[in-house]
Specification:
The structure holds 3 protein chains of 3 kinds. Chain A is about 30% helix and about 25% strand. By secondary structure, chain A is of the alpha+beta class. Chain A has a domain of about 90 residues: Immunoglobulin-like (Sandwich). In chain A, a hairpin with an 8-residue loop joins strand 7 and strand 8. By secondary structure, chain C is mostly helical. In chain C, helix 6 runs parallel beside helix 8, helix 8 packs parallel to helix 10 and helix 9 runs antiparallel to helix 10. Classes of the chains: A alpha+beta, B mainly alpha, C mainly alpha. Chains A and C meet through helix 2, helix 4, strand 5, strand 7 and strand 8 of A and helix 1, helix 2, helix 3, helix 4 and helix 5 of C.
């Protein structure tokens, strides 16, 4: 039986101590989050409140103001151009995504839930931005505890759930389950037409 | 020009100069990425834990009692984040070591060639219990003393020594088994996906 | 001329406020209006992940949906960000396994399967087997696989079952029928793995009809 060298632990540790290098994208991502957080301004705020005298000549004031105006207009124009490009994709402020659900054909899908004691049943999912206020996804009570709604859903793969009485999340008992345990409440999966048929 | 100390940078960030925080990110990023990577086993989880640690540290910066030791304080946050991320991802398969496709992807990301010995080490490390892996890495790779490890982890020194010892025993056993060409049964640590149980 | 100097100082100050304010607003990731339900730090963290997906040419919509789902379900901000990051990693893994020609739906379904514990290698095998059997997409097989795991079938068994059905060239309606049959069997008390394996044998022979 071959045994490992006596100095195996030193070799293991030497290997594990080898440097790891992350790229600059990591730094950029961290700083993007940092910039979105409230700034520490414990002394900066105090300093801002302290009256100061800053002296500019009228000429310098005018030039500085004109320069800042030009810079701000340029930045604003760039942001506006970017947002216009994104808006042109049909989904404002979200970059063009191949296969964007907003551009897909919609098919009628019937959702049915048996809930005899419910007062209200809604369908929420990625097809309606998980927003229960969409009237077309509010189920009607058909009698005998049967709730149903037929709504137009874009072709493709979706996750959804029923919300009963604005508070209880119920997966569709007859649909495939999506193993989404991120938020502790069940989801169902739905695959609608399109490139799925052969 | 001498570079600023951690305390100097912390002081300026606290006065509102948030952009200077990038300097601290750059100082500690690679070194602590190493720990997170070995602890969690894949780059995505490691980057998540590390990014979380940096942002939490920024948010709580005013509570850093000894800014000269910002690095150690940040590391404590990272150790806790790794535990959280590791616990949450415990059921999922690891995207490295045993998967040919993942190796290929890893080779694309890392110009340096991964040798077989490194693969054996990574696989063995992944099979330790999380607390044993943590203790082993802190002791031998991060070269911390047991007192400092105790402060970091909250565990007693005796318990930490036991974990390190067991980690070494288990690693030795796993590495011997690999060299003997036998398959290693996984009893501890990160579960194989075929053993995943779902209710 | 004093008034001109004062006016100059006021203009400089005002433009500084406007410039910095717009920069902070942009950095806060206010891009997708739907994410306004999240607090600013969470919105920025999610925007960073979405931007990473954009640069990696991964589907971004599932990431936004995940954040919206979390907001709707009242999840804590940390949990939302973690879920979005986790999904990003799963989307990337799924795309690597499925190959560059994978559709958004396949990548999405693949990410769910990865989340359920399916190894990357098995996902690639399913893709290869499906193509060999003349099947264009694996979205529904992956959805059914995830459902099996969610109902208690061990992921290794579920993977083997779905792979066998893909090799047999099962069509979507047959996969749907197979899923329904297994579900009913489990609801009637059958062991999940046994139900899946039994029904798979029948589905492969008879195209999903109950024997």
């Amino acid at each position: 039986m071959r045994s490992i060298p006596e100095n195996w632990i030193q070799r293991v540790v030497a290997e594990l101590r080898r440097p790891v290098r992350l790229d600059e994208e990591f730094d950029r991502n961290v700083m993007t989050v940092i910039r979105g957080m409230p700034r520490h301004r414990h002394r900066a705020w105090t300093r801002a409140l302290r009256p100061r005298t800053i002296t500019f000549s009228p000429l310098i004031s005018g030039i500085a103001a004109a320069a800042l105006l030009a810079v701000t207009l340029s930045v604003g124009h760039a942001i506006g151009t970017l947002r216009a490009a994104r808006a042109a994709s049909g989904r404002p402020d979200v970059a063009v995504d191949r296969g964007n659900p907003g551009t897909r054909a919609r098919r009628p899908v019937q959702f049915v839930l048996i809930a005899p004691t419910a007062r209200k049943v809604q369908v929420v999912g990625d097809f309606n931005d998980w927003d229960a206020s969409h009237a077309e996804f509010s189920a009607e009570h058909r009698g005998g505890g049967v709730w149903s709604v037929t709504a137009a859903v874009p072709e493709g793969h979706h996750r959804y759930s029923f919300v009963v009485d604005d508070s209880v999340w119920v997966a569709d008992p007859t649909a495939p389950r999506a193993l989404d345990d991120d938020f502790g409440m069940p989801n169902s999966a739905l695959v609608v037409g399109g490139d799925l048929t052969q | 020009m001498d570079r600023s100390s951690d305390a100097q940078i912390v002081a300026r960030v606290l006065r509102g100069d948030a952009e200077l925080y990038a300097e601290l990110v750059e100082r500690y990023r690679d070194r602590y990425a190493r720990y997170a990577l070995h602890m969690l086993g894949n780059r995505e989880d490691a980057e998540e834990a590390l990014q979380d640690a940096f942002t939490r540290a920024y948010r709580s910066l005013a509570r850093c009692e000894d800014p000269e030791r910002f690095g150690a304080w940040l590391f404590r946050i990272l150790v806790n984040r790794c535990r959280t991320v590791g616990a949450r991802r415990g059921r999922r398969s690891r995207t490295f070591v045993s998967d040919d496709l993942a190796l290929h992807e890893a080779a694309e990301e890392h110009p340096a060639e991964r040798n077989a010995w490194r693969e054996e080490i990574d696989r063995a490390l992944s099979q330790l219990r999380p607390e044993q892996r943590e203790a082993f890495l802190l002791k031998y790779v991060e070269e911390l003393g047991y007192d400092e490890m105790s402060r970091l982890t909250g565990a007693g020194v005796s318990a930490l020594k036991m974990r390190v010892m067991r980690a070494c025993d288990r690693l030795r056993e796993l590495l011997s088994d690999v060299r003997n060409g036998r398959e290693v049964s996984e009893e501890h640590g990160r579960p194989e996906v075929n053993d995943a149980k779902h209710s | 001329m004093m008034w001109l100097a004062r006016a100059g100082r006021m203009i400089v100050g005002a433009w500084c406020v406007v410039s910095v304010g717009s920069r902070i607003a942009t950095a806060q990731g206010g891009g997708d209006a739907r994410l306004a339900r999240l607090d600013s730090a969470t919105r920025v963290a999610v925007a960073v992940v979405v931007d990473s997906a954009r640069r990696s040419r991964l589907p971004m919509e599932p990431l936004v949906d995940k954040a919206l789902e979390g907001a709707k379900k009242g999840a804590e901000d940390d949990r939302i960000v973690a879920a979005v990051r986790g999904l990003f990693a799963e989307l990337r893994t799924a795309r690597s396994a499925l190959g560059p020609g994978a559709s958004t739906d396949e990548i999405n379904a693949g990410a769910s399967a990865i989340h359920a514990g399916l190894p990357m290698r098995n996902l690639a095998q399913l893709r290869a087997a499906s193509q060999h059997a003349g099947r264009s997409r694996v979205t529904l097989p992956l959805t059914v696989l995830t459902d099996l795991v969610a109902r208690g079938v061990p992921v290794g068994v579920a993977s083997d079952v779905i792979l066998s059905l893909a090799k047999a060239g099962l069509r979507d309606p047959d996969f749907t029928m197979f899923q329904r049959n297994v579900r009913l069997d489990i609801e009637h008390g059958a062991d999940a793995a046994t139900a899946a394996q039994t029904r798979a044998r029948g589905a492969a022979l008879h195209g999903g009809r109950a024997t």
